[in-house]
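Why do we care about 3D structure at all? Because function follows from shape, and shape follows, mostly, from sequence. That is the central idea of this module. The next example makes it concrete: a single protein chain, its amino acid sequence, and then its structure expressed as tokens.
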Amino acid sequence: MQNTPTTTLGYALFATRWLQAPLYFGLVAAQGVYVYKFFKELWTLILMCVSGHATETYVMLAVLKLVDVVMIANLLIMVIVGGYETFVSRIGLQGHRDQPEWLSHVNSNVLKVKLATAIVGISSVHLLQMFVDVHHTSHHALMWGTVIHMAFIASAAILAYMSGPMAAQSDRGHADRGHADRASAGHPQVVGPQPGQETPAATLPHPRQPEPEPEPVPVSEPDADAEARIRAAGFPARKLLEDFDQQHPRGFDRETVARLGKADFVTARHNVVFVGPTGTGKTHLAVALGVRACQAGHRVLFATAAEWAARLSDARAAGRLDAELAALDEHPLLIVDEIGYTPFDAATAGLFFQLVAHRYERGSLIVTSDRPLGRWDEVFGTSAPAMVDRLAHHAEVVRLEGDSYRTRRATAAWTD
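And the structure:
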């Protein structure tokens, strides 16, 4: 039991972080000043060029000034957005189509390194200006400009080198805290629906045989937030890319799967389609990529095609289909498993088309299917061509060849 006065004092001290908020708004005002300076310099350059008084050296120096102003404005953006989220309060940009890629993993160490590299870039522009205008720059100024620039480079390199061990130590701390949280909370039990109670589509049980379980490879523990996202995703089981038996499929693009494991496709709002016979590991790979996306800071939702059909049908029956599709935008990645095992009627196929069309260039989809995209008319009928067109436009299609892993294990056990 925590001491109440001590806890209250701690909360009060932590609340003082809001004193920094006006500082960041002051930086916003400073950015406005730089916007004014940029257009003033641009207008002067245009007037000089129109009047014919602009020499090549003058144009080059003026353009470098504009670049300098833009780089400083970029530096301000990093400090305003990254610093505010790191030291004051989180900015809820999850699912926003313009969310910066670096913001999902920014911390004080990352912010320091980015600031240092931005300062080196600004210093490079200043030094280039001095060399362009070398006839009007003293040798003393050139020497000290070069020395200062090299000092910036050295300090940035040292800071980047020091941030590596610091980041590793921070990651270990997060992992330890996440492990402690899981140990204290215990392993949650899966509780089925009570009689008469409707089961949400995202949490329906998955009556499938267990996926292949090769020897696990040790991996670093994700932090507590990532664990919460993984639990909320509704995965049928936790699968990792490191656990996938790459020797079982007769053929699949290992390099593409490894690249997809970086979860950059989620940020780019691209899709992934796994195609192959039953038991070749499509669900394993889909879940593993979903876990990687959760660890990268993205919210994920997993369900089979039948479960998605039930969810969308219920929303349509309740007159809230548009609201349901909009609510799904909070999840940058949706996973639709087992397309092709059951054909859908025209109304249900239309619901899937609306889902894919709504997610087009707005969010990512991972789809697993036992048949290639060219045969989806067997599942979705006349809706298939338009659906496939949108799904495949920004998609990586990974085909897996081979026999069922489950059947192979059963056959091996029988022969033994």
